[in-house]
Write a structure and sequence with these properties.
Length: 416
């Protein structure tokens, strides 16, 4: 029986956080005799994701590997699947490119043990990095068919995804056609035949990958979904809120190796190139000094990752209410002195007898009062919210008149 092995990769992007990952380029190689090694040359940019599907016939005891010119680490992101026809074995490898290289050579190798008749490999390069595996599925159909699909189809957990499929057969076929809204990227109908296809998704659900073969073949395969590598949203310490003093704000993200770009002018920060702050955005290195009421906006970014969402924290600085101190002045009329713990304070005040006036007079020197009543005052600091109104009551005692002399009453003298 002739083998058809099917591999599927579902690559997922967090909805609303990044543009769809798109196919950039790809390549293929195949062998029908030893040595079981072949190479694929592709043009890659740092941060792009490379997916390599590998398959062989009768490879139950066989191991495989994928290496590249730049020394990036290719890990098995699905498989191996050994449940298909004729003890086939298939793998799916994924890696994020660390270096830009217009002639990146991917070397695919199989150990000789168990390999029979053929091997094939296909690479697809996409515009962003993926690191977190979500789900995996396999195909186990043993009868020859012209329409192939996965049986336990991965169900997407986020709305925006890119699905990539790779199909392989140990024989030839007259044609391959991508179906179910997939787009064919590369194909080969001669021995061993294959097709690479992909599909952009816009909602959650169960999505089978399908293809039509011009010749009826038996097949097996793999399916996997990988979540996009996304920088965790920045957090602020202290948290947003109202404070009575200037604040030193630390910004952080739990994503190792990410940098933070921030702004305090109301404009969202940006990082059009992952890992690099846009002009106008400041690269965070030390805590931000918040000395006036303002909103700090920050974004996390890292090479080969999708930027975080823009996080923001609003800090409202409120002036401390004034205190009133009463000091003697000439005669029996006192002076009222205003003070505040806020930096560089100014004051507005008013004086009345019923404690209802609105502070409006600028304070510059102590206020002299000559009648019992109230002084009402508030503190102002440039860029801060005005304080609450402080009300201070004072009482003016009537003057004491000293009378001296003497009177005689009942024969007694009284000194006054």
């Amino acid at each position: 029986m002739r083998l058809l092995t099917r591999l599927l990769l579902a690559l997922a992007l967090l909805a609303g956080c990044a543009a769809a990952q798109t196919y950039q380029t790809g390549g293929k190689c195949s062998k029908t005799s030893t040595p079981w090694t072949c190479t694929i040359t592709v043009n890659v940019t740092a941060g792009q994701n490379v997916v390599v599907g590998v398959g062989t016939l009768n490879g139950t005891g066989t191991t495989s590997s994928v290496t590249d010119t730049n020394g990036d680490t290719f890990s098995v992101c699905a498989g191996p699947n050994t449940s298909g026809v004729a003890n086939s074995k298939t793998w799916l490898y994924c890696a994020v490119m660390g270096t830009t290289n217009a002639s990146e050579v991917l070397t695919v190798s199989l150990a000789n043990s168990g390999v029979d008749n053929n091997m094939t490999a296909a690479a697809a390069v996409y515009s962003g990095g993926y690191t977190l595996k979500d789900q995996e599925a396999v195909s186990n159909v043993t009868s020859s068919q012209t329409a192939w699909t996965t049986q336990n189809t991965p169900t997407t957990t986020i709305a925006s995804e890119l699905m990539v499929g790779f199909f392989f057969t140990s024989n030839s076929t007259t044609s391959f056609t991508a179906t179910n809204s997939f787009t064919s990227r590369q194909s080969q109908t001669s021995l061993p035949a294959f097709i690479i296809e992909d599909k952009n998704l816009s909602s959650t659900g169960a999505y089978p990958a399908t293809v039509t073969s011009g010749t009826s073949r038996a097949y097996s395969g793999l399916a996997v979904t990988l979540m996009a590598a996304v920088v965790a949203d920045p957090t602020f310490s202290p948290v947003a809120g109202s404070y009575g003093s200037a604040q030193t704000v630390a910004i952080s993200t739990i994503t190792s190796g990410a940098v933070i770009c921030y702004r305090t002018d109301g404009v969202p920060p940006g990082a059009s190139t992952p890992g690099v702050c846009d002009p106008g955005s400041t690269l965070y290195s030390v805590p931000v000094n918040v000395s006036v009421s303002e909103t700090v906006k920050a974004i996390g970014t890292k090479t080969a990752y999708t930027n975080s969402a823009v996080a923001s924290a609003t800090y409202t600085l409120t002036a401390a209410a004034p205190s009133c101190s009463v000091y003697p002045y000439s005669g029996h009329y006192p002076q009222i002195v205003l003070a505040s713990t806020s930096p560089s304070p100014t004051f507005l005040y008013c004086v009345d007898t019923i404690n209802t006036c609105t502070p409006s007079s600028s304070y510059s020197v102590p206020v002299q009062v000559n009648a019992t009543g109230y002084i009402r005052a508030l503190t102002q600091v440039s860029g801060w919210t005005d304080s609450t109104v402080t009300s201070c009551q004072y009482t003016i005692a009537p003057p004491i008149t000293l009378i001296t002399g003497k009177t005689t009453l009942g024969g007694k003298t009284r000194i006054q």
